[in-house]
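Q: Sequence in, structure out?
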Amino acid sequence: MTLCILPMLLATSNDYGMSIVQCFTFHGRSDVREAMHINGLGILLSAFTNLEGCGSLALSVHRGIASVGMVSLVGLTGCLLAALSTVPAVLQVWGRPHPTAERS
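A: Exactly. Output:
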């Protein structure tokens, strides 16, 4: 039953990360901090809402539903941490324009 959570986690982490990347590229690849400032609060609120829902599942008396809730809590926490730490770091390193592109 917990295997069904994997597609949800993949879609959620993709949504969080692509939101930051889209904002970063929309504003001309200028500043990762600006993209995080614009999208950070929305990502946090979305993640906390999902964590609250899955946390209520984790408190269930039924062991199957409780395990789905716990797996979702751990997975969504990992998605949030990856979106708020790894994606900005990757954009900072690889998101810069190439020096050869500036000369053309």
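The chain is about 85% helix and 0% strand.
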